[in-house]
Amino acid sequence: MQARGLLNGCALILLFIIQTATGDTRCIQKGGKCQENSIPCDNYQSGLCNGGRTRQCCISNQVADKRCMDKGGKCQQTSVSCSGAYRSGLCGGSASRKCCVPQSVFIISILASSGKLCTDANFQTVGRVVFGEARGETARGQLAVAYSIVNRINHSGYPNTLNAVVNQKTAGGAYQYETLGVAAHTKAWNVTKKGNTQEYKNAIKASSDALCGRVSDPTTCATDYCAYDPCSATNSNKYWTATNKIPIGRHYFVCRVKASG
Ligand SMILES: *[C@@H]1O[C@H](CO)[C@@H](O)[C@H](O)[C@H]1NC(C)=O
Ligand SMILES: CC(=O)N[C@H]1CO[C@H](CO)[C@@H](O)[C@@H]1O
Q1: Which residues form the Cell wall hydrolase SleB domain (predicted)?
Q2: Which class does domain 118-258 fall in?
Q3: What is the position in ligand 1's atom list of the atom closest to the CA of 183?
Q4: Which residue's CA is minimally distant from atom 13 of ligand 2?
Q5: Where are the domains of the chain?
């Protein structure tokens, strides 16, 4: 009798320990720590810890923000401009603290999920422009030009297919990418392609690296570039604010966010 009672007591204690451990596991799995909520902490979450109602799961912003960082983004107050898009539910802190995911990361995630842009036909389309506009540039300079084309597809200021972006014309009827309107350039492209020259290979490499998201975007989000600065292509205007200006080789690249007001 006595021995049995003792055993029952042990089992109860054991059960209690197991329950506490399983209760706290949900918090620990989220990278948090169960503690009394009177202790200062970036974010408390309830329902993840055993014990009284005041024993809650403390998750630091650093840990909470990891979901955003894993998506290539950065947590910040939404009052700060974001050259991409804000996504909720990925950051710790107040509701106005959100994950800014750069445009180019969106593109890469689209590519990873659909692979739609990563085709030989598209390597040719973008390669032709890269060759015409930047064949004298370094690999990084050519990659930046290729990305500035790819980034336009996911930008609200430009058409949303690759062919429409490349073939877009200005109000005056000229190609956005000047080189496409120059017969001598088209001929040079034909010749370099036929000869499978190093210049051809470089242009195709830069284009496929961007279209397949194989190498990250050196501009982060650029949609526009110019060979000099200041230049209307890279200046802010009443519709768009130019951000993240970066010189790469002989070009200045900018990202564009909607002008406020
Ligand atoms: C270049 O090649 C394309 C396709 O092969 C052809 O249609 C076009 O006429 C050529 N253009 C020039 C200028 O050689
Ligand atoms: C302007 C635009 O097309 N934005 C899209 C970029 O890609 C993300 C991810 O697919 C979309 O959610 C945006 O709407």
Answers
A1: 136-253
A2: mainly alpha
A3: 13
A4: 154
A5: 24-64, 65-114, 118-258
